[in-house]
Write a structure and sequence with these properties.
By secondary structure, the chain is α/β, with parallel strands linked by helices. It has three domains: about 210 residues, Rossmann fold (3-Layer(aba) Sandwich), CATH 3.40.50; about 230 residues, Dimethylsulfoxide Reductase, domain 2; about 130 residues, Barwin-like endoglucanases (Beta Barrel), CATH 2.40.40.20. The longest helix is centred in the first third of the chain and has 19 residues. Bound molecules: ligand MGD (2 copies) and molybdenum atom (MO).
Length: about 775
């Protein structure tokens, strides 16, 4: 029997048709003017699925800690659910009793799926917080550096600050010059964590361009900016934006165009920053000529850009990639200083902007989510909470000290790792290091729908349902979506909620975890809370029958006159910022007080650990840009046709500039080897002048598929990236700081085995 349901995904709302057992058709929701092609990835639902609970043979045979070096290469034994749940509950109890709850790492990072209730990380955190003071992670791989610096500079939490950004309609009407550091990639704007609503960014960009907004893309890749912008491209050496920004401010200062009045009224610390910029503190004036040698941009172009910015209403727009790099905090801080020197923060169409280009929301000034999620209990006392991307260090260095955002901590001794809704063998840097660190815990438990590289490297794999197999609520900016399960659960897969509920029952926390509700009852319960606060919401049954609900006040989302920090601009004394000075902090006493040389008290150009134009580039002369993929969300649905059709010779495509390809004898479609001292992978060459000379662009997310020597046959860039924190402030990932060399691969390239399930074996005989 054919039926169609609505589904909200991280990449937009869809209508999903099934024949009762599989999905037969996926189309964009009629309310979406520009559906993402990623929707078609849902069609490949059953490939590579985990059908039954599975346990790594040696673990089952020898118990926790047995032959952990064989993780990823050993066969699995499928077992009944009850046996698997008993083993997992027993292991959680054993580790907590013998080593303490802090020896359980449950901070499993990842996007999972978009439904409000079934959201994996929320389910996981609720379960573990009820169990005890497990080790958790905070911040993200997306924006850790920005999220740690923004509160010091503006006194606002990162998500509230993002939620208060200027609306697109204001950009269209009032901005004259829109300068992006790290681009305005349309495909990246198709996605929002927890559910992207109808896609309007393409329209907004086209409207802005038609209205005369000039777009400038400062970055290594031309098509980082949508063609709709009709913009200019200013190629820059990756990792050097802070030097460019410093020189832009310096030029404003020497031209006597820095808005001293704004800087005095609305900012704290400008005199100290200015002394640094003009060279009084370190003897180096941050001139355009100085920045030219670092950035590779001609000095006269820098001066011209500064002068253009000074004469036009200018938005300084930041992607996230510029801060997913060594000293990434500085990009957000120096960009703020640049916008402050231009004096247009808080004015319509001017100032600094964070979200454009890294996600698709247009509803600035609106609450991001309306329906409450599954509630979280408060964090238990005595928890260690690391910066989430320091996970390999956590596993490697029990008992050793770390510094993080003003805190001096000690890494606990992790014995058990529990991962739900993320793929660390996709998202983490320096995967060869992670492979070694991953051998240290005694037990690794994973809930996963797919036999992806992380599931294959676990001891106990519990099969999870996907979003099309369960009912949920989706909150997508302008619309609330009711999702009915489109197809039955694959094999014996269960919802994460039901898995946790069964474990909670075995561990004596069932009442606290479920509060006596099934998932269907939770959906009603959460909806009723939303309805109580919003009188336009109909009764649950009516909403469910209708399938969607438009948020009444958001009909014209994006069409607001909201301006980031507009209220502060209008009344700095009456509406001060919640910073120590009440102003935008261009110098932070609190940060200076931490004494971190990798994040001093004012925005500073700090050399990254490697970049083009330095001796490190002699051996590895190409900068690797490992951007977000256009054909999938991270590693999700890499096995679908949408992603696989874009591969080159079965490998992830790598783009090279024609000159760099020619110098290496590389032709279109060739298999190449990409390498540095950390690792190597194969990839399929695509030759394009959309990447600047010296740039190699290889998107993230190809399922990690190492051969015996650790070369990833499939093209996962994280065998090449370095695993080091941005600074002691944010301790964020630095994936975008990475030099490589590329060569023709000679010989017969090995077959890609990324999508092969593991082997299975019978239960070992006692
Ligand atoms: N080199 C490099 N690396 C990067 C980046 C980069 O720019 N460069 N970007 C980083 C960024 S910004 C991010 S956000 C991360 C993303 O990293 P992740 O969020 O870990 O990546 P995903 O592929 O989305 O992984 C989600 C996993 O959850 C599973 N899943 C989906 N739904 C469910 C569910 O309902 N239950 C369970 N149990 N599992 C489910 C999927 O099958 C998938 O394996 O990657 C980071 N890594
Ligand atoms: N289709 C799709 N969309 C996505 C995602 C996805 O997986 N697929 N992931 C989502 C997630 S989790 C996030 S966090 C956001 C991430 O959003 P971003 O972090 O903004 O996106 P990236 O693709 O990592 O980087 C964008 C561009 O920045 C440029 N860049 C890299 N280094 C530098 C530099 O040093 N200087 C300058 N000026 N530019 C640089 C690169 O050319 C790159 O293409 O995207 C989201 N959108
Ligand atoms: Mo992200």
């Amino acid at each position: 029997m054919t039926r169609t349901t609505n589904l909200l995904t991280h990449w937009g709302p869809f209508r999903v048709t099934s024949d009762g057992s599989s999905i037969t058709d996926v189309v964009g929701h009629p309310a979406d003017p520009d559906p993402s092609p990623l929707g078609q990835g849902l069609l490949a639902n059953d490939q590579c699925r985990v059908a039954r609970p599975a346990i790594r043979r040696s673990w089952l045979e020898g118990g926790p800690g047995t032959a952990t070096e064989r993780r990823g290469s050993e066969p699995f034994v499928e077992v009944p659910w009850d046996e698997a749940l008993d083993l997992v509950a027993g292991e959680l109890r054993r580790v907590a009793d013998q080593h303490g709850h802090q020896s359980i790492y449950g901070g499993s990072y990842g996007w999972g799926s978009a439904g409000l209730f079934h959201q994996a990380s929320n389910q996981t955190r609720r379960f573990f917080r009820l169990l005890g003071p497990f080790t958790d992670g905070r911040l993200t791989y997306s924006s850790a550096a920005a999220a740690s610096i923004v509160p010091y500079v503006f006194g606002l939490g990162w998500y509230p600050a993002c939620g208060q950004q200027t609306a697109w309609s204001v950009i269209v009407d009032r901005c004259e010059l829109f300068v992006s550091f790290g681009g305005l990639r349309l495909n990246n704007t198709q996605v929002f964590f927890g559910g992207q609503g109808p896609h309007h960014t393409r329209e907004w960009i086209a409207k802005a361009a038609a209205n005369g907004v000039s777009f400038v893309n400062v970055g290594p890749v031309r098509d980082d900016e949508a063609t709709e912008t009709d913009g200019r491209w200013l190629p820059i050496r990756p990792g050097t934006d802070v030097a460019l920004m410093a020189a832009l401010i310096h030029t404003l200062v020497v031209d006597d165009r820095a808005d001293e009045e704004f800087l005095a009224t609305y900012c704290g610390g400008w005199p100290r920053l200015k002394r640094y910029l003009v060279g009084e503190t370190d003897g180096v004036a941050k001139t355009a000529a100085w920045a030219s040698t670092i950035t590779g941009i001609a000095a006269d172009e820098i001066v011209a850009l500064a002068r253009e910015m000074a004469t036009k209403r200018t938005t300084v727009n930041l992607g996230f990639a510029v801060q997913r790099a060594d000293h990434g905090e500085q990009t957000y801080w120096m960009a703020t200083a640049l916008a402050a020197a231009l004096g247009e923060i808080g004015l319509p169409g001017g100032g600094v902007a964070f979200p454009f280009g890294a996600h698709g929301r247009a509803g600035a000034g609106q609450p991001m989510k309306r329906v409450p999620k599954l509630p979280l209990p408060p964090p238990p006392d005595g928890q260690t909470v690391i910066s989430v991307s320091r996970v390999a260090e956590l596993l490697e260095r029990p008992g050793e000290p770390y510094q993080f955002d003003g805190e001096d901590g000690t890494f606990p001794d992790i014995r058990l790792v529990y991962w739900v809704g993320g793929n660390v063998f996709h998202h983490h840097q320096d995967l060869n290091r992670l492979v070694r660190a991953w051998q240290r815990p005694e037990t690794i438990v994973v809930h996963e729908p797919f036999w992806n590289p992380m599931a294959k490297r676990a001891d106990i794999v519990l099969p999870a349902t996907t979003a099309v197999e369960r009912s949920d609520l989706g909150d997508g900016e302008t619309m609330l979506v009711a999702t009915d399960a489109a197809v039955p659960a694959h094999g014996e897969a269960r919802d994460d909620y039901d898995i946790f509920a069964a474990l909670a029952d075995r561990l004596g926390i069932a009442d606290a975890f479920t509060e006596g509700r099934t998932s269907e009852q939770w959906l009603r319960h959460l909806y009723e809370q939303f309805r109580a606060a919003n009188d336009y919401a109909p009764p649950f049954e009516d909403f469910w029958a209708a399938g969607t609900l438009d948020h009444a006040d958001l009909a014209g989302v994006g069409h607001t006159d909201h301006v980031f920090l507009g209220a502060f601009r209008a009344d700095p004394a009456g509406r001060p910022l919640p910073t120590p000075s009440g102003k935008i902090e261009l110098f932070s006493e609190r940060i200076a007080g931490f004494g971190y040389d990798d994040c001093p008290g004012h925005p500073t150009w700090l050399e990254p650990y490697e970049r083009l134009g330095t001796p490190a580039a002699d051996r590895h002369p190409l900068h690797l840009v490992s951007n977000q993929p256009t054909t999938r969300l991270h590693s999700q649905h890499d096995h679908s046709a949408v992603s696989r059709d874009a591969k080159v010779a079965d490998r992830e495509p790598i783009r090279l500039h024609p000159d760099d390809a020619a110098a290496r004898g590389i032709g279109e479609g060739d298999v190449v080897r990409v390498f540095n001292d950390r690792g190597s992978c194969l990839a399929g060459a695509r030759i394009s002048d959309a990447v600047a000379p010296g740039i190699a662009q290889l998107a993230t997310g190809a399922w990690f598929d190492p051969d015996e020597d650790g070369t990833c046959k499939h093209g996962n860039p994280n065998v090449l990236t370095r695993d080091k924190g941005t600074s002691r402030l944010g301790q964020g990932p630095t994936a975008h700081t990475c030099l490589v060399e590329v060569e023709q691969f000679d010989g017969e390239p090995t077959t890609v085995t990324a999508f092969d399930p593991p082997t299975f074996t019978d239960r070992p005989q006692p």
